[in-house]
From TrEMBL:
GO MF entries: GTP cyclohydrolase I activity
Membrane is among the record's keywords: no
Pfam families reported for this sequence: GTP_cyclohydroI
Family recorded in the similarity comment: Belongs to the GTP cyclohydrolase I family.
Gene: folE
Record's subunit section: Homopolymer.
Name of the molecule in the record: GTP cyclohydrolase 1
Top-level taxonomy: Bacteria, Bacillati, Actinomycetota, Actinomycetes, Micrococcales
Reaction catalysed by this enzyme: GTP + H2O = 7,8-dihydroneopterin 3'-triphosphate + formate + H(+)
Keyword annotations: GTP-binding, Hydrolase, Metal-binding, Nucleotide-binding, One-carbon metabolism, Zinc
Length: 214
């Protein structure tokens, strides 16, 4: 699993949430405030927030929001600090990383897969493969738009891995385009971001053929 929530911080050095006692002390999400707001929304749509099926809903939504927005309180530097000296200087690509994010315009989900690749720096040091998936979750678990998600992932790799090149391709279905509004279920949005040597046409073509080869 690549996911973590407010009770499951990324396994990385020095994060204060690792000792298991962090839960209340370090929680940055104001759950009572979310609960009050959800109760207001239920009233506003004409529901009875005190009926038995809804009475625990504000608490559940607050707990769910703490999880789906937990990326706001995690630092990609922590995740990408895990490095191995494998003397590998060629492309490393983790493809088809599934993730869920939340559209910041409508606060409904968008979800899909991310493909994340880089050409390591000249020192041949690489990061852990799972860390690339954790990086995706750190940025997905925030109010987002797909373009910024894509850019943030590639920029974090550039900053913390100092790669010779990096590429991120993200393919998503946006629930705000499926279940409401324009109502086009199945429509996919594809975004990409490329840095450094991955701009080279041959290198980029190699990465893209690996990404697209299903
Ligand atoms: N660029 C971009 N747009 C997004 C993303 N997620 C949702 N949107 C779009 O945000 C736009 C918001 O448009 P508005 O006209 O302000 O809101 P709206 O009336 O709800 O629009 P409709 O969704 O067309 O009904 C819509 O076109 C959405 O499709 C995203 O990740 N990136
Ligand atoms: Zn939306």
């Amino acid at each position: 699993m690549t996911h973590f929530d407010d009770d499951d911080a990324p396994a990385s050095a020095g994060h204060p949430a690792e000792d298991g006692s962090h839960h209340k002390k370090h929680e940055k999400v104001d759950r009572p405030r979310i609960e009050a707001a959800v109760r207001e929304i239920l009233l506003a749509i004409g529901e009875d927030p005190d009926r038995s099926g809804l009475v625990d809903t504000p608490r559940r939504v607050a707990k769910a929001y703490a999880e789906v927005f937990s990326g706001l309180h995690h630092d990609p530097a922590d995740v990408l600090s895990t490095k191995f000296d494998l003397d590998h200087e060629e492309l490393v690509l983790v493809k088809d990383i599934p993730f869920y994010s939340t559209c910041e315009h409508h606060l409904v989900p968008f979800h899909g897969v991310a493909h994340v690749g880089y050409i390591p720096s000249h020192d041949g040091k690489v990061t852990g493969l799972s860390k690339l998936a954790r990086l995706v979750d750190i940025y997905a678990r925030r109010p987002q738009v797909q373009e910024r998600l894509t850019t943030q992932i590639v920029e974090a790799m550039v900053s913390h891995l100092k790669p010779r090149g990096a590429i991120v391709v993200v393919e998503c279905e946006h629930m705000c385009m499926s279940m409401r509004g324009v109502r086009k279920p199945g429509a996919k949005t594809v975004t990409s971001a490329v840095r450094g040597q991955l701009h080279d046409p041959a290198t980029r073509a190699e990465a893209m053929s690996l990404i697209l080869g299903r």
